[in-house]
Amino acid sequence: MSEATVNTKRPDGSNRVVITGMGAITPAGVGVEALWKAVMGRECCIRPIERFDTTDYEVHNAGEICGFDATEHGLTKKESRRFERFVQYAIVASDEAIAQAGLSMEDEDPSRVSVVFGSGIGGIDELESGFKTLFEKGPKRVSPLFVPTMIGNIAAGNLAIRYGMKGECINVVTACATGAHCIGQAVRDIRHGYTDVALAGGAEESVNPICIAGFANLGALSREEDPLRASRPFDLNREGFVAGEGAGAVILESLEHALARGAKPLAEITGFGSTGDAYHMTAPDPEGEGVVRAMRIALEEGGFTPADLGHFNAHGTGTHANELTESKALRALCGEEAGIKVPVCSVKGTTGHTLGAAGAVEAIVTALSVANDCVPPTAGFETPDPEAPANVLAEPLENYKQKVALSNSLGFGGHNACLAISPYEVAAE
Question: Is 417 helix (H, G, I), strand (E, B) or coil?
């Protein structure tokens, strides 16, 4: 079928939005291939923390990116000194995504290329260091670059500068739903014609002394000493999430634009749901009403029904509150009997919880899953929880064609984001 006969519009006349490039850096390593191999292989990439001494901490494991040298991945020595880790991670992931997409800014109208890239916490290392300098050495010793180094929007800013992207440049910050909301915002911008191309995703540098202390004292982190058993989404014996770090980046385009420049669509984002719980600072609404609405909106926006759902990439943090809510939400969406049959996975058994990057990393895994007719297993899952019944896979499900999958992200404050992702299919006029 020729490009001329491809239907690039949705039924309402808005633009179809496709993924043409993906990039990642996670505890599994640098690159999407390393992430995908680890997830499909049910590998656990949780390790004892190396970045700082955890002797006085109750938590000793994390999804840490060890031995990272930015200069080995395309950054200059100046950039590696000046940019916070979350910015460095964002650049590494974005470089990969742009390369895969074959996007050349010389061939683009820069005002039609946007950056929507967030961080849940931002430059926490610099924030911690700046306060220490202030208290120990006085105000005149604080770096003049303290503020522009640590603020959360600076990843988006530096990405725009690096590539010369002059369209909308924003970061959507919704804690652990940040990456998904950034992608969703970019989808809406492209769908309604505000931009043609967007670099979207999230980055985080959360394996940090004060972050680990804060999350641990909140009671949110797993205290399991064995790193291979620390992150256990949906497992009966789970006891909290494991902090992770990294970045996920995608190049999104209107299908019309992608085909015009000869790009290969990897998957299509067919829907996006965004809701709020209005319930609690840290806990999800146990009834899951807001989560269900986000999932339903995402499906309906793509023209799907719950019966079309191929699999569910859950937020799946490994906390009781999360999995009880998501299990209930999935059953409320699909019906009790059908809901417990939908294949479910959580990437966090492999990577830990990469917080502001998680939604982007998991969108990448979901896109690869529908494109490759498969559903990944969940590392760390062994014993089902009868209070949170779900069809969580312990082995990969292959040769499994799907119309659509949902990827959920939930953030402190009651922020719910759901992306509906489908295999790319040509639709005739």
Answer: strand
Is 257 marked active-site?
A: no
DSSP 174-229: -GGGHHHHHHHHHHHHHHTTS-SEEEEEEEE---SHHHHHHHHHHT-B---SSGGG
The per-residue pLDDT for range 378-421, each reduced to its tens digit, is 999 999 999 999 999 999 999 999 999 999 999 999 999 999 99
List the catalytic residue out of 73, 181, 257, 353.
Answer: 353
What CA–CA distance (Å, rounded) separates 167 from 17?
17
For residue 73, indicate whether it is catalytic: no
pTM comes to 0.97
Distances (CA, A) of 179 to 9, 54, 119, 215, 353: 25, 28, 8, 20, 12
CA 212 to chain centre: 20
Residues 73, 181, 311, 315: which is the catalytic one? 315
Q: Is 315 a catalytic residue?
A: yes
Pair type for strands 391-392 and 343-345: parallel
236-286 pLDDT, tens digit each = 999 999 999 999 999 999 999 999 999 999 999 999 999 999 999 988 888
